[in-house]
Amino acid sequence: MTPTDRDDPFVEEVMSHAPQLWSAALRMTHNRSDAEDLLQETFLKAWRASHTFERGTNLRAWLFRIMTNTFINKWNAAKRRPIETDIEDVEDLYLYRRLGTLNPAALDASAEDQMLALFTADEVKSALEELPETFRLPVLLADVDGFSYKEIAEMLDVPVGTVMSRLHRGRKAMQKRLYDYATTRGLVDTSVDGGEGGDP
Question: pTM of the entire structure?
Answer without folding.
Answer: 0.69
